[in-house]
């Protein structure tokens, strides 16, 4: 007699979908707290951007919903390698930070690697959308509400690019890093290989530092 496994299979798929949904919610909440919300939410954060995992799990949006194991899994499985987990050398507490994207002025991540010569970052690309190009070519790239402008060390799909540029961007702006460094513009490399720059003293990377622009049809 044949056994109908369709109900069991559907249940498994529904369970996996729910689990993925929980992980997406956890990842987005972690990013928001670590990048933007910790100070506003009263969550202690270090100048390097670390928050105790035990404090994270006390937050109202995560409390009684997630565990340490959930956070470890989301960090391990994040394809952009967005987060770093470490153990505090004195207290033994487990700490977590987002590797880039902060808007909180309190954060001054000393783990960022300064780029001192253009040879250290031969290709630096900012991904955007054609609808933004007219404004960008006039005004330059802006940090907006973040501490840095984000760049990738190449284009999406290249092996060294795991973050720093969205996959659906249709406009790639290549940067003249040597010229910018010569003029005192700073660049850094994050732990997940995102290139970061605070721009000039007003948070702008001017169009004169654009090497070329490539528009892709999507």
UniProtKB/TrEMBL annotation:
It comes from the Eukaryota. Keywords: NAD, Transferase. It catalyses: 2'-phospho-[ligated tRNA] + NAD(+) = mature tRNA + ADP-alpha-D-ribose 1'',2''-cyclic phosphate + nicotinamide. Pfam families: PTS_2-RNA. It is an enzyme of class 2 (transferase). GO terms for molecular function: tRNA 2'-phosphotransferase activity. GO terms for biological process: tRNA splicing, via endonucleolytic cleavage and ligation. Its EC number is 2.7.1.160. Belongs to the KptA/TPT1 family. Catalyzes the last step of tRNA splicing, the transfer of the splice junction 2'-phosphate from ligated tRNA to NAD to produce ADP-ribose 1''-2'' cyclic phosphate. This is 2'-phosphotransferase.
């Amino acid at each position: 007699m044949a056994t109908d496994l369709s109900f069991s299979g559907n249940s498994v798929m529904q369970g996996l979908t729910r689990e993925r949904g929980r992980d997406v919610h956890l990842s987005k909440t972690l990013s928001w707290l670590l990048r933007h919300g910790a100070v506003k939410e009263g969550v202690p954060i270090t100048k390097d951007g670390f928050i105790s995992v035990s404090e994270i799990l006390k937050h109202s949006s995560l409390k009684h919903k997630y565990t340490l194991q959930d956070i470890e899994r989301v960090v391990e499985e994040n394809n952009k390698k967005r987060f770093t987990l470490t153990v505090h050398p004195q207290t033994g507490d487990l700490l977590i930070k987002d590797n880039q994207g902060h808007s909180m002025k309190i954060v001054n991540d000393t783990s960022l690697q300064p780029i001192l010569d253009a040879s250290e970052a031969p290709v630096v690309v900012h991904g955007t959308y054609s609808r933004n190009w007219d404004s960008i070519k006039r005004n330059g790239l802006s940090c907006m509400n973040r501490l840095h402008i984000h760049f990738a060390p190449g284009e999406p799909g290249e092996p060294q690019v795991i973050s720093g540029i969205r996959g659906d961007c249709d406009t790639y702006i290549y940067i003249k890093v040597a010229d910018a460094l010569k003029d005192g513009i700073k660049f850094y490399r994050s732990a997940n290989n995102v290139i970061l720059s605070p721009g000039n003293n007003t948070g702008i990377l001017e169009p004169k530092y654009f090497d070329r622009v490539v528009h892709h049809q999507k």
